[in-house]
Write a structure and sequence with these properties.
Layout (H helix, E strand, L loop, with lengths): L27 H11 L6 E3 L9 E6 L2 E24 L2 E19 L5 E7 L1 H10 L1
Antiparallel strand pairs: 1-2, 2-3, 3-4, 4-5
């Protein structure tokens, strides 16, 4: 497994809707690459299309906790909608005020096929919303 290069703005895959994963057993290497890529300093989340794979999968690393979600769907957004400074690895050096809810819940799958529901607040909520967009 490896740290993969981040695709930059202008790459067509970043504007293409990601396909849902139909067989989670076939994305183990992708998940590991996402985790390895996200574990680099200054990264909180990486979506599969950012490493050139058009599948709905992302990984996160926030407050020392790492994980991933396959076929993420936002199921709940609560709290105030606040503008936060948000960047994107595919747009290096650019930060924008982005409206995000204070709390977010995402549901998806794990590699063993189980359903995972991930709840976050603050930075994790922001990452869940950004990577599921």
């Amino acid at each position: 497994m490896s740290v993969r290069e981040i695709r930059l703005f202008g790459d067509p895959i970043l504007k293409t809707e990601c396909d849902r994963v139909t067989d989670v057993s076939k994305v183990a290497e992708l998940v590991q690459d996402l985790i390895d890529t996200t574990s680099q300093p200054g990264r909180a989340g990486v979506a599969a299309n950012q490493i050139g794979v058009g599948l709905a999968v992302f990984s996160y690393f926030v407050d020392g906790k790492a994980g991933y979600v396959i076929n993420p769907e936002i199921v709940e957004l609560t709290g105030e909608l606040v503008e936060v400074d948000e960047g994107c690895l595919s747009l290096p050096g650019l930060w924008h005020k982005t409206p995000r809810y204070q709390f977010a819940t995402v549901r998806g799958s794990q590699l063993d096929g189980s359903v995972v529901e991930l709840r976050g607040e603050g930075l994790l909520a922001q990452v869940l919303q950004h990577e599921s967009d």
